Each structure stands twice: as C-alpha cells, then as structure tokens.
Amino acid sequence: MTDTDPLVLSPTVGRRWLAQEIRRLREAAGLKQADVARRLRCNPTKITHLESMRTPVNGPDLEVMLPFLGVPAERVDWYLKVCDLSREKGWWDGDRSIPSWFSLYVGLEAGASEIHCWDAGYVTGLFQTTAYATAMLADDDAAGIRLRRQEALRRDDPVRVHAILDEAVLHRRIGDARLMREQLDHLGTLAAMPNITIQVMSFGAADHRGHLGSFKWLGFPQDDDPGAVYLENQLGGWFLEKPEELAVFGADFAELVARALAPEDSAALIARRAEEVR
C-alpha cells in the first residue's frame, strides 16, 4: 500500500491485507496475540480470527489497535480508509449460489493485479465464452457467475493474466464444433489484448511438473503482498500462502513458461486448431 489513497480493487482483498497487516505489525512490535487482546479487552481468540480473516476488523477496534502496534497517529486515518473499503459488499458476497469456499476466491480474483495460471483440463474460467461455460457447467447460474468474473479483464486497471494451456485443452470437445470454433477464436482475440499472455504447452514439450495438476497464482496491488496460490478439487478449494509453498509454485510456473510455446507460436497453433474444427 502507498501513502496516497488506498488501492482496494475488491473488499475481499482489502480484508485479507488488513488481516495480514495486523499480524505483521504485532510481530514487528514484539507483541503476542494475548497482549493485543488485553488492549482491546477481548478474548485472544478474537485476535486469532482477525489475523486469519475469519472475522473482519472494524474501525473502532482498529483505532485502538494501531497506536498500540506502533502506527503513527497521522497514518491511522489511512488504515481506516482501507477498513471502510474492505467492509463494502462485493457482488459475490451473500450470493447463496456461490459456495463459501469459492466466494473467497472470487473476491480475491476480482481484486488481483495479476494472475498466473496453468490449466491442464479446460479453458481457464476467465477466458470461457458464454456457450463454453454453459455447456461445461450445465448450470445457468454457475455459468453466469463465471462470466461475471471476467469483468476483471475489462476494468479501468485490468488484471494481467498469463495463462498456459495444455494443448489437450484445444482438442477436448465441449459442445459441438461451432461452440469450439467460437471458443478458439475467442482465445485468439484475448491473446491480442495487452494485459493477456497465452501460451500453449504442446504435445511435443519435454516432461514438466504440470502433470501434478492445474493451479492459479494470484498477485495483488500491495507491494508487500507475496500473493497466494489457489488449488481446487472435487471437495473445494484452498489457498497456499507460506513463502516455501509460493516458492515451489513460482518455480513450477517458470518451468512451464520456459517449456511452452512462445505466445506468438501459441496464437498460431490456436488459429490452426480453430480452422481444423470448421
């Protein structure tokens, strides 16, 4: 975060940053959660919940905590602005059709400044056409949510996406030939956008760690935020945020970038594949 007005592209990202910042400030001050709890006259469990984002912090608590954690008086108002922004409701908040575990991802995705993703099975959700999403999900509400997430690609300060797709994604038939042509043509259009990079991992690529599964790495506008890796399976999704975990996936993504086709060669392959299904 800078000294100017806070940049909070999504309330969920603001809540996450505040939770991390409270913990960082506490640890930098050499204080334990019990120390902060005594200052707030609350149970230490509340501080645990604030730092884990289970409970969003409110302005009055923040006004008490910040001076205690060593934040200068002239800086407190800035933190309160972040708090106010973080307590707003995103379109995903309270939508009962979105599982709670996925609502967190949607909120973070909406406020991400960059996303690096590896997709081994299907076109990544941000890149799907209406027909592709509807055919794949067989649920109009779920497809509508997926398409609304794509607003992040078109906002004033659009998210930067670097996507690597396995070549199998271009061949896996979802719907009929017309639907697949539309989706492949859409990928070509997206690849020409300045905030989007698409690479294809060709069938002839050397062995790589992508066989371990798809993943997304989300980066955020705050300079001191290392980001988070998102994984998903049949039972739900979860985030990895420890430095050693991020290092593993950062190295994996760098390897995938190096072994995939260059963006221009990937665009050519996508165009050829579109022609083949005509």
Q: Structural class per helix/strand content?
A: alpha/beta
Strand content: 5-15%
- The shape is elongated
Strand count: 6
**Distance linking N and C termini:** 49 Å
Q: What is the mean pLDDT?
A: 93
**Which residues form runs of ≥5 with pLDDT under 50?**
none
What is the radius of gyration computed over CA atoms, rounded to a whole number of angstroms?
21 Å
Helix content: 40-55%
Strand order across the biggest sheet?
Answer: 3-2-1-4-5-6
Main beta-sheet strand count, sense and barrel state: 6 strands, mixed
What is the succession of H and E elements?
Answer: HHHHHHEHHEHHEEEEHH
Number of helices: 12
Structural notes for this entry:
- The chain is an alpha/beta fold and 278 residues long.
- It is 50% helix and 13% strand.
- It contains 12 helices and 6 strands.
- The protein has helices at 11-28, 33-40, 44-51, 59-68, 73-86, 100-111, 130-137, 140-148, 167-171, 177-191, 243-259, 263-276, and strands at residues 114-119, 160-166, 196-201, 215-219, 228-233, 236-240.
- The longest helix is centred in the N-terminal third of the chain and has 18 residues, at 11-28.
- The radius of gyration is 21 Å and the shape is elongated.
- The mean pLDDT is 93.
